[in-house]
Amino acid sequence: MPHTSIREPYVRLRIDKPGSAATVTRGDIIQAVMREYSSGQLPPGSRLPPVRVLHHQFGLSKNTAHAAYEELVARGVVKNHKRRGYFVQRQPARRQQTSIVQPAPLLVPDCPAVASRPRARRDLIELSSVFIARELLPLPRISECIRRVLKKPGLQYMYDAQGYEPLRRLIAQRLDRRGIPAQARDIVVTTGSQQALDIVGRALRARCIATEDPTYGIGKQLFELQHMQVIGLPLNPFTGADLDGWRHRIEASKPGAFYLTTNFQNPTGYSYSTAELMALLRLSREYRFGLIEDDWGSDMLSYSEFRPPLRAFGGEEVLYINSFTKKLLPSLRLGYLLCNSRILPSLLAVKRVCTLASSTLIEAALCEFLERGYFDAHLRAMQPQLDAWYQSCLARLQALMPEGVRWTTPGGGPNIWLEVPRRVDLQRLADRVALRGAAIQTLRDWFFGTPHLHGIRLGYAQHPPERFSVGLEILADEIRRALR
Ligand SMILES: Cc1ncc(COP(=O)(O)O)c(C=O)c1O
Predict the structure, then answer these.
(1) Which of 99, 109, 392, 446 could bridge 217 with an S-S bond, Cβ 3.0-4.6 Å?
(2) 263 in contact with ligand 1, CB cutoff 6 A
(3) What is the pLDDT of residues 136-159, one digit of tens each?
């Protein structure tokens, strides 16, 4: 037995002694062990509860407990291992031990949401990431705020299913300044916008939801996991939303809600025009479906500009979701949804039963961060860098890509859609690029049925331009080879 400070676990014993625990006797202990031993329920080698535990739990004197165990030693049922405790002996070979086959818990078969991507190698150049490079993120300032809130009295035992109230107030003020009327009481803080989608999906009475095709795939998987019928409305980032086509699909399938990403849609990078947003509001009224707006990209517009989201035009029935994760620190996992007083109770009830609440400490740290003005300062400092990286990416694409390849020019957000000729086998391309140290994602299952686009998501914000450019060279080279 190697020396270790970790004690072995001990078995649970059922000691039948109704009434006061103080009446447990030496005989009770012996009887309890014998009963379970003889029925084969104490696995050989398992440790009996330590003497001091019996003393603590039942008030049994240590001498009495020792005496009970020594009696069991004498009966050949347990063995005393010095300093480790009393252990159950193997049963004399009487009959074959039958192993009990437990029924497995029933899970959703082939659950799509648990099929995670293999972890990217650290040295790979990620060409399709949605993350922003760590050198652009305000780590030292976040650490300061976390350290500060750890010292704040009163936070340790406090949580609120709706989210830390001072944080909600600051979020509401921020939205207000951007032309989205908001009040703290209509905001629910979530563990990233992914949890906002989860809450909304669970709370929705309608079981048919529409979304763009392609759409944010993990959102699609989530709705499918929630047994919803998910309808895809084809979105071509080069030509926009085919609103007539959408109307036909909506008419045919009658979704109860439409989940859409209005700024820098993932994966296409598409942003809706104001005219399209207005048309969607009309469609929503005509066909009576709710709008769930995912505004993940609004803080990543070039020159730190801002465009009004659907919520600003459509009013408080538009459910608005946003997140700090990508722009601040992916591991902070903080997002929120803005609803209205009518539906808040349902959403809050769902969040409460699912998680009780998010981490108050993290919420308070973000609150501190916003309060000190760090978030806006960070965005102001980061956006020019992202703008420069975006420009560099476009210039490199122009210089490197062969004829027939085209790409979107979203002007912000972390993604560009790169469309390649159909005769390039995307999976083969991904494999070949990976062999040379770069990674691309083809995101086939972010589409509905056969993809109507043929390309990949590019994320220019993950690596500084020099490194990203090396990846683009590999990609362009492999596309050219595939076209030969
Ligand atoms: C469009 C969109 N919405 C929501 C999410 C979920 O993000 P998070 O939970 O990190 O806020 C993502 C993640 O990439 C996304 O791309």
Answers:
(1) 446
(2) no
(3) 999 999 999 999 999 988 888 889
